Amino acid sequence: MDSQSSTLEIRRREMMRLAGGGLVVGGMASLAGCSGDSGGSSSSPFRIPNTQDYNTIQGNLAAGSDYDPWIIPSLIYESYLNYNIETDEIIYNLIDEPSVDGSTLTFSIKDGRKWHNGDPVTAEDVVTQFKIAMLAGGDPQLTQNNPESLFEKINQTDKHTVEVKLSGEFNKQLAIMQIFYAGATGTASLWTPTSVYGKFVTDWDNAATDSERKSVTSELLDFTVEYQDVVGNGLWQIEKTSGTEFTFSLFEDHPDSDNVNFDKIVMPRMNENDLVPAARSNNVTGFQHNNPTASAVESPPSGWKALEVTGDDSGGPALICNHQHDIYGKREVKQAFAHIVNGQGVVETLGEHIATPVPSTYTFAESLMDRYMGEPIKGNLNVYDSSEEATSLLKSAGFSQNGNTWHRPDGKPFSPTISVFDSPPFTPVAKTIAGQLSNFGIKTDVQVVEPGNFFAQFPEGSYDLVVEWWDAGGANPYFGMDRNFVGFTGGSMQYPDEVSVPPVGNMDGKEETVNIQDMLDSILTASTEPEMIQNVRKLAWVTNVTLPEIPTVMTGAVYFYNTDGWNWPKRDASVFGYDDIPAWLMEQGELSQAN
Question: Where are the alpha helices (DSSP H) in 351-457?
Fold first, then answer.
C-alpha cells in the first residue's frame, strides 16, 4: 500500500481505542462478572448511551475514519464466533466450526441467516468481506494486521460454504482466531452485503495495474453509508437515526429473537461526563466506562451496580523506545528504563479500580502466566525492579552521572521527550513515567500530540520515546506479540527484523541472531499445543531481553448496569467471559426485562 493508505490504516486501527474518549459503551467488552439482581417491572426499552458524534459517523467499517467500531456493530451484525476469555471456549455463531485440512480452511454459514432486507446471508457475502479485507490491507472487522500474510485465495464452493486457501499450514485455533477475532475490535462480524460492497471487489478483480488498484482502495476508504441505509444481519436492526439518538428494533427473523422479551433499544448520544448523572436519573440502562472516577465506582447510583471488566482490549499503556535511535535503541538504555518505570506508580495515577501492574518480567499478562510461563525461561528471565541495576546498565553503556543528573556518552544531558496522543489513559501515564525518569535524574519532557498527527508520524520514527498500547494477546500471547514486535501496520514499531539474544534459558550464553517473523510464524504453524507453548516461550525470552515495549499496567474498565427492572446473570456466570456485552447476553437469553 502507498503511504497515504498506510496512514489511513494506522489511524483506523489505533483510533478505535479512542472512540468516545474514555468511554466505550456496551460494545466489545468481556465482563469480569456481575451479580444476579433484578428489580421491579419496567416497560422502558434498553437504553445504551454512545459518545460518538452521530452527525459525522457512517456505516462503512472499512473507511479511514468516522464510524462506530464498537456497540452499533455488536447489535446490527452477526459475529462469526464469540470467545470466552475466562474459560478459553469458543461459541460459533454465524458459522459452524471450521475444518482445516492442511492449508485449506472450510466453513459454512448456519441455516436461516438473513439480512435485514430479507435477503439470505450467503457465502458470496463472506467472500466479499474477505476480499474487502485484502483490498484495504487489513480490515477493522476481519483478520489481524495484513490478511495477505494469512490467506492466499478464497472462494465459495456452494451457496453457504466458503473455502480459504491459507498461506501455510497453521495451528487450527490460532488460524481461526487470527481471522475471526480481529484485534482491537474484538470479535469479527459479517457486515458486507455483496449488494453494497461487491462493486469494489469487482473493480479490484478487474484492475490491471497498481494504479488502478490504488484507485479502488481509495474509493473504498472514501465510501460512506448513512446509518439509516445500513443493511445488517444481527439481532437488532436500525429503526431511526438522528443527531441525538438512534433507535433499534428487534429483528424478528433472527433465529435468537425468541430469547428477547423486549423489542426496542434506544441509544442516546451523550458526553462522557453526563453518563453517571444519566444513570442517576435512569435515562440509561447499562454502559461501559473506561475512565470512571473511583468515587463513581465505589458509590454507583441507587439501583445500579458497578463492576470491573476486562475492557475492550487486553493490555495497557506502555513506554516504547525508538528502536532505531542511536541512544534510545540501545539495549542497556531500554533495560534501564524498564527498571526505572514503576507500574505501581502508574496504578496510583489511574486508580486501582481500572489498573493493575504487569508482572515485572514483562512477558505475559498475569492471567496467562500459569499456562505459558515454564521451562526453559521460568526463573531465568530479567526481573525489572531495581534502580541500582538501572544505574549499572547506564554506566556500562557510557552514560555518566553528575550529581542527580545523567549525561549521555557524548557529554550532553540525557533528556528524552515522550510523545503521546491526547487521550486517557495515555496522557496521564506519559506524565507519570516522565516524572519517574526525571526523579531518577533523566530529565524527561512530555509532548502531547493530536491523535491524527501522532499516528501519521509514529511509523516514521520521529520521536525519542512514546506511550502507546501494549497488547497482552487476550486469547493467546501470540496476538499481542505480533502487535508488539511488528506494530499495527508493518514496521510501525521501528523494531528490527533480526536481533541478537542469549540462548533461551541462559542469560550468560553466547548471543545468537534470531528472526522475529520466523519466530512468530513458528507459533502460528505449530502442529501441537506443547509445541505452540514452547515457541511462545522462546519469543517471550526475546521480549524480556530486547523490550519491544515496556508495559506499565493492565487497564480494565467498569461496567455500570441498572438492576431496577432488568434480570442479569449471577456474578459467577461464565457468559460474562464473552465479548459483545450486553448484546451477547440478549442473544443468549441471559438479559431480560423483569415481568
Answer: 369-372, 387-396, 426-440, 451-457
